[in-house]
From TrEMBL, chain A:
It comes from Champsocephalus gunnari (Mackerel icefish). Keywords: Cytoplasm, Nucleus, tRNA processing. It is found in: Cytoplasm; Nucleus. It comes from the Eukaryota. Residues 1-25 are annotated as: Disordered. Pathway: tRNA modification; 5-methoxycarbonylmethyl-2-thiouridine-tRNA biosynthesis. One of its GO terms (biological process) is tRNA wobble uridine modification. Pfam families: PAXNEB. This is Elongator complex protein 4.
Automatic annotation (TrEMBL), chain B:
GO terms for cellular component: cytoplasm; elongator holoenzyme complex; nucleus. This is Elongator complex protein 6. Gene3D superfamilies: P-loop containing nucleotide triphosphate hydrolases. The keyword Oxidoreductase does not apply. Belongs to the ELP6 family. It is found in: Cytoplasm; Nucleus. The lineage of its organism: Eukaryota, Metazoa, Chordata, Craniata, Vertebrata.
Length: 404, 275
């Protein structure tokens, strides 16, 4: 063959031999992404390592993650901020839309990345031996036959590391934050058209969809756009969609007038994302929506859906069963992407805990009983004590040990 | 194409009943794996297939069909498959552009109260173009088949249940009766069950209406005992046939598990994980 000796640079890009190296180098070269093990989808991290694991390795590019807010929107907002902060660290572009708070406020609250390995430009995968304490010396001595058993790990995590950790007590430094390119959509500042362009969707939603499409087309996130050298991911965070401030009456009425506005918007959003290198996280105050069937169709129009249920303000906060956790997490939907079988999580009983440096999702289990006496005995003694107190006249305390 | 399901339904790509209206439904579960079975079955049976995919992109269906041994791109090029990618088409309606190039099929998004006439026109032209194709020398295809992935998306887009039922009735009339082809439709429903009968909500009404129209139902449910890793749920297969005097219905219950490249069906309690 004549082309064997030629240097590769001279080859035409349209050579049609069947012997070609299968490369996805164009996609892999985007920082902060990795291909999925199961279906080859490009994944990005949500910024919460155990949530990545729960979603099957990460969020696939082109999909929507729906988060049903907890009652005070504290933890769902936290996850949204983790998602955006991960985008800042990976140098992705951001798009933040909100109706309640100014997007700038949300951006200022982003948690600070833990910078032991973030020299920002280095790849995320690095041997992290320095963090593991050398615990061989002061390890507890246990019987030899248990020594080689694997450690029981309740927190969900995958073996390889993907994403970063954040310190919630500090906010991200402004210089890091401003390095990322960010598009904002704040509904009160946004001029809405006087005439609604079409009837099912609200003005606010169609303005948002239009602005999203403009950003995607202008900044070259469209998959069909001409190939440029540096492709990037657009991370879209939409806060409290469906709340009254978006002009929606889903949360206020039993029979909402424009009940199909949000579902139509989500359909359009998903259509937009599928043809672009972008990924969205949507939070939704689902506890205000009375109609469960409507909630079901909203869930089906998103790819992933999780629901947070925090213990704050409920009697579960003081329940000893839940003393280790801050709330429960329910997986409503896992994505079906280019494959028949979806990867369901192994466990359905999951709980979350917000620590200073980590938002961790764990399997819910009962705490071990570490009290000195077995509870059955102590209850018996307690009962004995009360009977002794009630029978105050007889005064025979000796029969305390003889209660049958 | 799942061979086990074929033997349950007594169909093969070479011989299948014509003029059937198959309803795939689910309740708090996912029946979408069944639509891929029917898509690959009818493509192998050399039928002229019209697929209305409202939920996912073409790439998704294509990737799965590839695993099941059928190439959608080839079928499309040969003219065997007409594919409506609802998502892509809807975008040009939802975000109006100056140069409007979208097809008319998704016109109901502009004003859902009009109904699904435009979508029906699309289906009609797709299924009845069979003869013309044969005229200019290309391959001749068998009876037409219409597959709709998820009618309940139409409800989410603001179309009323009555309009969707009208659409399905018109489709049945032209495909099943006139052209002796088959119709497969998927409906997803999230209600808690028969208990909340009180409010005749859209998707419940749609499900009842379609169950009345169809000749074969495959109803997918989760296991009543809860989630299990080895058994993904159960399918209730219900035939409604007219045989001699009066109607006769037959019901069978199977459990299923979805794999990477297909699904297996077995009688309740005979999962390989149990035995």
């Amino acid at each position: 063959m004549s082309s064997v000796g030629k240097p590769s640079a001279e080859r035409s890009p349209f050579n049609n031999t069947s012997f070609q190296k299968k490369t996805r180098s164009k996609l892999i070269s985007i920082p902060g992404t990795r291909p999925s093990v199961q279906n080859g989808q490009l994944l990005v991290s949500t910024g919460v390592t155990s949530l990545d694991y729960l979603l099957g390795g990460g969020l696939a590019v082109g999909t929507v993650l729906l988060i049903e807010e907890d009652r005070y929107d504290s933890y769902s907002r936290m996850i949204l901020k983790y998602f955006l902060a991960e985008g800042v660290v990976c140098r992705h572009e951001l798009y933040v839309a909100a109706a309640q708070d100014n997007p700038d406020d949300i951006l200022q609250e982003l948690p600070a990345p833990i910078l032991d390995d973030v020299a920002m430009h280095k790849p995320a995968e690095q041997p992290r031996l320095s963090r593991e304490p050398p615990d061989a010396l002061d390890a507890m001595k246990i019987a030899w036959r248990y020594q080689n058993l694997p450690k029981v790990q309740t927190a969900l995590a995958s073996s390889s590391r993907f994403g970063h950790y954040y310190d919630v007590s500090k906010t991200m430094e402004p210089e890091i934050r401003q390095a990322a390119k960010c598009h904002r959509f704040y509904l009160p500042e946004h001029p809405t058209q006087s005439s609604p362009p079409h009837s099912t969707m609200l003005e606010s939603y169609s303005a948002l969809l239009k602005s999203l499409q403009e950003v995607i087309n202008r900044e070259g996130f469209d998959v069909a756009a001409p190939m440029s050298n540096s492709r990037n991911i657009l991370r879209i965070g939409l806060h409290s969609l469906g709340s009254a401030l978006w002009g929606d009456d889903l949360c206020c009425h039993d029979n909402p007038k424009n009940g199909r506005a949000l579902t139509t918007f989500l359909y359009g959003l998903r259509a937009l994302l599928r043809s672009s290198l972008s990924v969205a996280v949507v939070t939704l105050p689902s506890h205000l929506i009375q109609d469960r069937a409507l909630m079901g169709s909203i869930t089906r129009l998103c790819d992933n859906a999780i629901a947070l249920e925090s213990f704050k303000g409920s009697e579960r906060e003081t329940n000893p069963l839940y003393k280790d956790y801050h709330g429960l997490i329910h997986v409503r939907q896992v994505p079906h992407l280019n494959c028949l079988a979806s990867k369901l999580p192994d466990h359905k009983d999951l709980a979350f805990k917000l620590k200073r440096k980590q938002f961790s999702i764990e399997r819910l289990h009962l705490p071990p009983d570490l009290s000195d006496t077995v509870s059955r005995v102590s209850r018996g003694e307690l009962a004995g004590a009360t009977t002794a107190a009630s029978a105050c006249g007889s005064g025979s305390s000796g029969n305390k040990h003889l209660d049958f | 194409m799942y061979t086990e399901l074929n033997s349950i339904l007594n169909t093969t790509p070479d011989s299948f009943t014509q003029g059937e209206f198959v309803l795939l439904s689910d309740r708090q579960s996912d029946a979408s794996f069944l639509i891929h079975h029917f898509l690959s079955l009818y493509l192998r049976a050399r039928c002229k297939v019209c697929f209305v995919g409202l939920v996912q992109s073409f790439n998704h269906y294509s990737a799965i069909s590839q695993r099941l041994g059928v190439s959608l791109t080839q079928a499309k090029e040969k003219g065997q498959l007409v594919f409506l990618e609802g998502q892509k088409e809807s975008l040009s309606v939802l975000i109006p552009q100056e140069n409007d190039t979208g097809s008319q099929a998704m016109d109901f998004l502009r004003d859902p109260s009009v109904g699904l006439k435009s979508l029906y026109e699309f289906v009609r032209s797709a299924v009845s173009s069979n003869g013309e194709e044969g005229g200019d020398g290309s391959e001749e295809w068998g009876p037409p088949v219409l597959l709709v992935d998820d009618l309940s998306v139409l409800l989410s887009l603001g179309v009323s249940a009555g309009a969707v039922l009208d659409f399905s009735h018109y489709c049945r009339a032209i495909v099943c009766s006139q052209l002796q082809g088959n119709v497969v439709m998927l409906v997803r429903c999230d209600g808690e069950g028969e208990e909340d009968e009180g409010d005749d909500e859209g998707s419940e009404r749609l499900m009842k209406g379609l169950t009345h129209q169809c000749s074969l139902t495959l109803h997918v449910q989760g296991l009543p005992t809860g989630y299990c890793r080895d058994i993904h749920g159960q399918v209730e297969v219900c035939w409604r046939r007219r045989r001699g005097d009066g109607q006769y219905t037959q019901k069978k219950l199977f459990q299923y598990k979805v794999h990477d490249k297909g699904a297996s069906f077995f009688a309740p309690g005979t999962s390989s994980a149990v035995l």
